[in-house]
Design a protein that fits this description.
The chain is an alpha+beta fold. It has a domain of about 70 residues: Beta Barrel (OB fold (Dihydrolipoamide Acetyltransferase, E2P)). The protein contains three helices and five strands, in the order αβββββαα. Strands 1-2-3-5-4 form a five-stranded mixed barrel. The longest helix is centred in the first third of the chain and has 21 residues. The N and C termini lie far apart (about 105 Å). The model has no long low-confidence stretch (mean pLDDT about 80).
Length: about 140
Amino acid sequence: MNRCLVSLKPPLLALALVAMTALTSAAAMAQGLMRPFPKTALRGLLEVTAPPQVLLNGKPARLSPGARIKGTNNLIVMSGTLVRQQVLVNYVADSQGMLHEVWILTPAEAQQKRPGLETISNIRFESDVGATPPENQ
């Protein structure tokens, strides 16, 4: 005798759980909650050239074999969909220097300060050094 009136088959149950997880994460992002990034995450400008080849801050880099790119809604984004697009990201590299975890930033997340995308310049001004200019004679 079957006493369970409504039974979900395992594939339907898995699909229902995935849908609820997606709705929950989308609702959390809509409320403006910030994603928790690792302390080791750096900021960069990513451009996918030909997956797994990328440009990170204008320099050649490579995605690791198990790289995960998460969009602004925290869902996985395939690297092929980002070809020739420049996106501001937080990233974590693996021990070989390849990009392993990448998060595409929302405008609110981009406002947060994070190391990694500093402007590099070989031009120095006296005001930067703190020295006073010599007197004209």
